[in-house]
Amino acid sequence: MNRDLFSTRVLSPEDLEENTAAAALPLTEPAAAAQTLLIFQLGSEHFGLDVGCVERIVPFQAPHPLPHRSRSSGTEIVCVEGQIRLFVDLRALLHVKSSDENVSQHERSLLVLRFDGELTAVAVDRVRAVAAVPQIHFCPLPALNARSQNRCTDSLFRYSDALAAHIDNEQFAAALRECAS
Amino acid sequence: MTRTGRSTHELSLDELFAVEVESQLESMSLAICALEGDPASAAELEKLMRASHSLKGAARLVERSEMVRLMHAFESRIVLAQSGERPLHTEDFAALVGSCDWVTKGHNLPVHAAEGLVPSSAALIRALESGEPLPGLPPPLTPSPLVRNDPAYLRVNAESMNRLLGFSGEAFVDAAATVRLTQRLGRLRRNVAAANSKTSGKAGEIGLLIEELYDLHSQLEDHSHRMLQRMEALHQEVLNSRMRPIGEIRASLLRVAHDAARSVGKHIVCEIRGDDTAVDREILRELEMPLQHLVRNAVDHGLESPDERGASGKASTGTILVEARRLSRTLQITVEDDGRGLDFDRIRERIRQQALLAPEVLSTLSQDELAEFIFLPGFTSRDEANHLSGRGVGLDIVQNTVRGLHGNLRVAGGSMGGTLFTIEVPLSFAVTAALLVRVSGHLYAFPLTHIAGVGSFSPSEVIECEGRRSATWGEHQIGLVPLQRAIGLAGVPEPDGDSIRVVMLQGSSGYHGIVVDGFAGHEELVLQQLDPRLGRIQDVGGAALLSDGQIAVVLNGDDIVQTIERLSQGEDVTACEVTRKTQRPAKRILVVDDSLTVRELERKILSRSGYTVQLAVDGAEGWNLFSSGGFDLLITDVDMPRMNGIELTRLAKQHPRTAAKPVIIVSYKDREEDRIRGLDAGADYYLTKGSFHDDSFLTAVSDLVGPAPSDGKGRPGAL
Predict the structure, then answer these.
(1) Hey, which residues does B320 pair with through a beta bridge?
(2) Is the N or C terminus of chain B more exposed, i.e. has fewer CB atoms within 10 Å?
């Protein structure tokens, strides 16, 4: 398996795209009890998202607000490789506070996600890696967090020296759907 | 649904028949083609027999006796072939094809045979009955006798054509992007050369690299410019291939005019100008029926009888002028007559008789406002219907069709003394000519069809009154509303310079000014629909990618006019004398109705009574708004596109967020079973539209949400 998958360095969108494709390939060895996640940062918080739902990683483009919508639902539109795509504000969805940290536009990326055949773009501050995280490393979120408004994350795992929240595919897809409509 | 997007119950008998003819002819054409290969095919003979039988029945209903006779002979011939008594031979196909052409020609559909070669019905009937070849006709063409055998024409699948258009548009954008990248490379080359000139070491090596870079840049520059030019030409050609001249519907309009005139005993001259004006074939197809209706309307309603004309000193022959012209990047078609013009007293009387407005409200309406009522479903100024009109069905459909084309329809007095209907639509569905404006750092586009003008005002020209601004534009005093506010965006106007840039739109109550940060030119935009998950977004018509890769949100002209009118009326710019007093918050009411006139009428009644009103044009939009919360009451019509009022009511009563909110259904349907259906769905009141006349509408509203905050504000006469 590509060692870069376990790398902790910040990857460029191009590297990530290559690694995403590699990680999405069927394993030749019997699958270990691990989940391959795309690990990214929003502000100082880390998240892990099932790499299978990541269609593309492209350089960040500023989204365009939609009349009557963007302020209330955080839905906008964005140009991804010549196509106009629905853009959802991931910070609002994951209840991540705006950070004071100055993230350069160069580091930001757009993830194009596919759920139920529908493509949605979201912006992340940094894409960190694609990593296979053993199931035993996941620990359920504390009850306090589980009751919080953020229904999209269900467990925590350690990534490098940080704690990352695991995004539950089903809940996340439902939240995206709700946001869009 | 028909190809016009209307449900069949909205069509007149003649229109239904035309739809049926087109559909049956298509089945017959396909069956004849198949039978040429296998004349004994039982399945194809059955299809042909069934289609001709249906056509005969339909023709009988609309009293087309000649077509009935021809289809009867046609059907009989097929029955003989089915029984094996007289199998089809090569010479029979000329009569079968000829019969289809005869029907086609009679319905102004594209005739597949050469014009002069369509035989008479009598000759066709003889040929079908006797089996003898048609005199003077060439044998039918194979393999497809119904396809024009002209090498200048090629049948192309419409979907494929649309995809081709999409690809060519995207390729054009990509080519423009390549040019920009090349320009960046050129800048890089110059910077490297400049940096190199400042260094002394390795100058030779870097110099060689710069030479190579220079060469590469030159080649790429040539190549990308050639590519851009070709892509532009390709895209233009694809667009052109969709354009058809207005003259293609000339025959159909003339026929409608003369048929209508003959049937009501009027003498007319119908003149059609601007035949060569080209328009997207989809738009032309959609416009044909509305134009036919306007022409029929002009004959029946607009022009007087020969006696009346004589008595008023006019020539006994009335004139109808249909004129198409290209205005900038929009198509304008006018239908004008030299008849009596709109009878405003009669319209006022009918409004009173149909109890559409309270008398004190009615007396305050201007002529423009009265004219709007002729587009109301079910509204007619006639006492009795005839076979052409008078049922109040038609002009509302014309208006809906034009609005569906992102266009607008206006009525006014014409220069010939009669009535002038003006339709303005984009020249193409695929491409929208639009003015680009900048707001809060983003681009928005106004379709040119809806722009009355643009202007720049110095701050001293803008009058500020109670925090609301207005300015004088020509002879008009116009209220100014920032676009940010109109479309619910964050931020405040940040003008590019010292001037205040304004886009003028014309609404039913006059001109309105929308303040933008700056103008960014005008472009022909390839319109893309937004992700369907977003549903319909108020004020948005779609989005477009510009050649530099930026996105522009294209605004919906009709929606934005209504939004601005709502804002202007809610915050009357001239109302300096409005007293500031503490009031409890106004109740928010959502009105859902697909009729512009009804919607506006309800809004005016409610807002003048002190309620805050928001509008939705159909059930789906209504649900999107209502479910977002913040409303105290839902008022809905029943028959609406996308989601009807019964479904909307049911949904509202089932959803936890809205279940407790009251619902009033207001409909023209006044049968007991309709009322029960509405109440069963969960409505708290079921009112008919006559309730606008008395107090029952406002009483019901007040009963459900309480009285308006300030009774003093409810000035019924001040609509």
Answers:
(1) B270, B337
(2) N
